[in-house]
Amino acid sequence: MEQPQQPAGPEAGKPPLRVGMVGYAFMGAAHSQGWRTAGRVFDLPRRPALTAICGRDATAVRAAAVRHGWASAETDWRALIARDDIDVVDICTPGDSHAEIALAALAAGKHVLCEKPLANTVEEAEIMTRAAEEAHARGQLAMVGFNYRRVPATALARRMVAEGRLGALRHVRVTYLQDWLVDRDFPLTWRLRKELAGSGSLGDLGAHIVDLAQHLAGERLAGVSALTETFVRQRPLPGGAASGKLAAVSSAGTGTVTVDDAALFTGRFISGALASFEATRYATGRKNALRIELNGEHGSLAFDLERLNELWFHDGSEPAAQAGFRRILVTEPDHPYLDAWWPPGHGLGYEHTFVHQARDLVHAIAEGSRPEPSFADGLQVQRVLAAVEESAEKNSVYTSIAV
Ligand code: SOE
Question: Could you tell me the pTM of the whole model?
């Protein structure tokens, strides 16, 4: 399985940054794509080397290594972390193992990239953030994988808000809609079990939109008011039979969903701007529909992930007779990340966000700068998620978030 580690082309002669990735399912495949491509498209100070991939099933992880271009495979993440030929540990596992793996990796002197949400609880996220701060003093970096910050159009939106193009912010409106749980026979996979996933649509999709909303707004939420619901409470066990850990859940071939199916909440930013959020996996017909709109005193921006090469901008200073939302096709070399890609008009897709994530982390490591989003950012998102859960549980009007 060993593959050549000294490529020709733009990566030739660059010192390697040796990556070890834990997990090889959907996110593992997406991150692999990012690591594989970043150094070939961008002129990076170090060459990402896909050194080892890790998963518990020896046959499956070897197949994943071959498929995604990793030089070796491990079946125990502790063995991966113990290797002295790994510089970065990339965590693409369910949330219940993020803290343990990240803490061990930081203690072993590695840089860490951790998938979102950072952890399953605020307590875990706090411990991880403290460890990341201590590790930073030793020159190690830790970053969370909120990849939607790295769509060129959202990065452009951030830039425009920071330049003051919207003026004082009044509203942020965000929805993240999927429909893969509509089928009542969809099995009780890890994403539907609190002990593994932490929460449901809230942690999976809500974490993304909370991060994106705060990132684009350039400020944090001060409090929320929430409703959550679990629509289908019993689901068939994966494989149709109770086994292993799941046997404790049920012996009748079904198990209980212990997370939210949907979360709906409003929020207030520190500046007083108001926000609304909806995260669900029950929006029949919606596949991966993340939409965000920001309205400011002088202008508005709107983005739709299903048309991710476009950003819509309304400039309120234009004469009313000509004003209106206009489409910015975000494919110009002046747009974020795009100087390295295709000529204008040749758009990018979902997978490019992972290439950009890898690119930014390699730069941060080479320059010793703090990568964003940091673990502290991940912790703050976790606090928002916890406030949403608390507010929904209490059915209270408003729950403040600790700063
Ligand atoms: C599943 O809902 C999922 O894969 C999320 O976990 C990802 O973070 C999101 O990008 C796409 O949808």
Answer: 0.94
